[in-house]
Design brief:
Elements (H helix, E strand, L loop, with lengths): L5 H4 L24 H26 L4 H32 L3 H4 L10
Length: about 110
């Protein structure tokens, strides 16, 4: 078997190098890829939707300060509910029953 020389392995200088990796996404005039441009447009649509919803809520007389009060009350409610769940869990262990079996006794709704 004959060995090829280094000159035999070189490409002719007239052949341009072709990358095995294909560039599938083209850049637009603003320097973003098409997929990035689509993402930006989608986010702009969402922002417009949110701004419309905010304007609608404000036109009904709702204010941002009310939202924070509502959030604070929800946190307080969830903390109290967690405590009640722990108490029910301990009662269930002491009585050897499932927690859901205690709900009817205390007039609690399983879906709440």
């Amino acid at each position: 078997m004959s060995r090829k020389s280094l000159n035999d392995l070189r490409r002719p200088k007239t052949t341009a190098f072709k990358s095995p990796l294909q560039n599938t996404s083209q850049k637009s005039s603003n320097g973003l890829k098409n997929s990035e441009q689509d993402d930006v447009q989608e986010l702009e649509k969402k922002l417009e939707t949110f701004n419309t919803e905010i304007a609608e809520l404000e036109s009904r007389g709702l204010k941002v300060e009310m939202l924070q009060t509502h959030i604070d009350k929800l946190h307080q409610y969830n903390e109290l509910k967690d405590c009640a769940q722990m108490v029910l869990g301990r009662i269930a262990v002491l009585e050897g029953v499932k927690t859901k079996d205690l709900y009817p006794r205390y007039n609690l709704d399983l879906e709440d």
